[in-house]
Amino acid sequence: MKQLTVFTFMILLIASCTTDSNRAIEHFKKAKELLKKDNIKDASSEIETAISIDSTNIDFQIFKAKIIENTNNYEQAILILKKLLDKSYKLDTVNFEIGSCYFGYGVYFLMKQNDEEKGKDCFEKSLTYYNQAININTEYFNAYKEKHQALHNLHRYDEALIVLNTAINLYPDSIYLILGRGVEKLYLGDLTGAMFDLNKSIQSNKLDSVDMANAYRFRANLYLEKENTDQAIIDLTDALKFNPKDEFALAIRAQCYRKLGLKDKACEDYRKAADLGYISIYETIKEYCN
């Protein structure tokens, strides 16, 4: 009778654990859906509930860091992720996410703080973790993707191109990688090669809205290299149709309008870019628009 009681208790305990695990996973799923909708507050609440139910689930901790990263609190996110490095679980993902946090921090310093030195330091740190992720998983697409972006922001365009070509060998059908290769060719001075890759990217209709905007914006830069300001404005306007929050497209189009002597249009775009977070553009506004 005593053995039966213990057995019954164990069954109930296992059932309870299974139920708790399922409840935690449901909150985790809700957090992921909410983050997709940019509902940071509720996503944070859901992941905290999931962790309170099951604090041993590493995936919950990784996702918590991702949510925190979206609030620009990069140091806290990095701290959470670094504690997971000794757990021997999804180390490629953890290293990638740390790299991604440092990359985001670098962009933050450049765009919000106008601090190029700190931005550069963060991009350098991101490379360390992207390399770790790739060493663990040589087919980690997003690690190649962000590594090339970090190298680009460090003005190491030749290295960025090597990373892209390596990734293209693994993923020859990736239009995103073709787009990136076109960008690096542009910065390396291969205008013909850049035009081919950028045109292929745009004509594929396989890019999401943000990447399509990037493709048009970089092709506009190419037209500016060719002194074709009017076509550059057309491409930048198309970029903004796909991504109205592209502050870079606004800033470049403002420069085009300025070149054509259209001060009112230029200043309108400068101010829109500033409102979207391009803080360093205020120096230009101060000098040109007031």
Largest sheet properties: none
Q: What are the low-pLDDT stretches, counting only 5+ consecutive residues below 50?
A: none
For the record, give the distance between the C-alpha atoms at the N and C termini, rounded to a whole number: 89 Å
How would you spell out the order of helices and strands?
HHHHHHHHHHHHHHH
Counting structural domains, the number is 2
Q: Count the strands?
A: 0
DSSP helix count?
Answer: 15
Q: Specify Rg, calculated over alpha carbons.
A: 23 Å
The coarse overall form would be globular
Overall average residue pLDDT: 92
Structural class: mainly alpha
Task: Supply the CATH class of the largest domain.
Answer: Mainly Alpha
Helix content: over 70%
Q: Which fold does the CATH topology of the largest domain refer to?
A: Serine Threonine Protein Phosphatase 5, Tetratricopeptide repeat
Give your account of this protein's structure.
The chain is mainly alpha-helical. It folds into two domains: 1-56; 73-289, Tetratricopeptide repeat domain (Serine Threonine Protein Phosphatase 5, Tetratricopeptide repeat). 80% of the residues lie in helices and 0% in strands. Helix 5 runs parallel beside helix 7, helix 7 packs antiparallel against helix 8 (157-170) and helix 12 runs antiparallel to helix 13. The radius of gyration is 23 Å and the shape is globular.
